[in-house]
Amino acid sequence: MVLNLIGQILVAAILGGIIGFDREKLSKNRKSFNFAGIRTSSLIGILGALTPLLYDFNISFAILVVASFLIALVGSFLLNVKKDKESGATSEIAIILTLIIGFLVGLGYLFESVFLTLFLVLILSYKNSIHLFVEKVSTKEFKYGVLFLVLALVIHPLLPNADYGPYGFFNLKEVWTMLILISGISFVSYIFERIFTSKNTIYLTSFLGGIISSTATTLNLAILLKKTKDDFKIQNAIIITSIAMFIRVLLEVSVVNLNLGISLSKVTISFVIFSLFIYLWKNQKKEKKVEITNAYENPFEIKQALFFSVFYSLIKLTIGFLEAKSGVYGVYISSFVSGFIDTDAVSLALASRNLDSLDGKTALMGIILALVANQLMKLILVTTKTKRLNYKKLNLFTLGIVLVASIFFYLPLN
């Protein structure tokens, strides 16, 4: 029992010291008053760890100790506000949390206390990034984020989980789950794009844009390609957009069907390696700066959500029907044709069908065909928009993707 208590005191002191280190560094950089540095925070952590023992020994004494601590903390806050009227209460709240972390250690919740400490330090350390996030994200975008959380955490659990219609093509909860998955990935990427990219970071913008909407980003780059003579740089950006699409589809499929995702990862890795090879081929050492802006106002639009829901259900119905009537080749044809419109819906529908009745090899080949079709569509989009055919990198890239995909048709699933 003594060793256990000593261990708890040491852990609480270390965790408190970690929090105090961040606060002390900040106060020295600002040359401002801070109530708790490393030593004080360590002592507060120890106080929290001893509180359960004090409570068992004498409840009144434990309450008196905690109350005295809180009074001292309030006094520190008032003194800090008097010296700096723009000062917030971040340090004081961090101190209270340090006490709670120590208390959790004293109760034996070691993992939870370590997690809370690391999470708290993460928030405290990235103050500038958090404020930059608030500045760059508009009120409209924030409302979309709240709406997404309502759809995911409030409405989704209430929906019925039952199959309706021929081949069980419509399941409201399943459609909603897929919609949340797609929207969540797109929304997070959109926020990252808003915060961490600028008009000059064309490759990063293209990658994040490819995760949000590879088609919209490719169209935007095609318009730019028509206006500029810097062909190779824009072609590289389009290739990066396709890489983002490959990674996004792999992530979506893996969430829905892990086994199929593992099989698809081999294809994705092959696609990405070949894409990087084409990207580096004849790459210019000094590239001119090319400005690009995003091609979307917000990835979480009601119209897009409705389109995805309807299209996803129709693809499931089509795959079920063609699988029953035409077998494997029917699934391949529907996957390839649907890939020209939306790879996400096709890939998720195939992943879902694989969990029911569709064999893994057919589902995997269907996803590959959808990816190939989407890449062909991108090339058609670029050549149509710019009215040019002689894009060496894009033509070679698309041909290579088709050849790499063809190889997997002759390889075993595992």
Q: What is the strand and helix layout of this fold?
A:
Blueprint: H1 2-30, H2 38-57, H3 59-83, H4 90-107, H5 110-125, H6 127-136, H7 139-155, H8 172-196, H9 202-227, H10 231-256, H11 258-280, H12 302-326, H13 328-339, H14 343-356, H15 360-386, H16 392-408
Coarse shape? elongated
Q: Count of DSSP helices?
A: 16
Q: Can you tell me the residue ranges where pLDDT is under 50 for at least 5 consecutive residues?
A: none
The class by helix and strand makeup works out as mainly alpha
Percent of residues in helices comes to: over 70%
H/E element string?
A: HHHHHHHHHHHHHHHH
The main β sheet shows up as: none
Radius of gyration: 28 Å
Please provide the count of β strands. Answer: 0
Strand content: under 5%
Q: Kindly, what is the distance between the CA atoms of the first and last residues, rounded to a whole number of angstroms?
A: 52 Å
What's the rounded overall pLDDT mean?
Answer: 78
Features:
414 residues; mainly alpha; 80% helix
Explain what this protein looks like in three dimensions.
The protein has 16 helices and no strands. It is mainly alpha-helical and 414 residues long. α2 (38-57) crosses α4 (90-107), α4 (90-107) runs antiparallel to α5 and α14 (343-356) packs antiparallel against α15. The protein is elongated and about 80 Å long. The protein starts with a helix and ends in a 6-residue tail after the last helix. The model has no long low-confidence stretch (mean pLDDT 78).
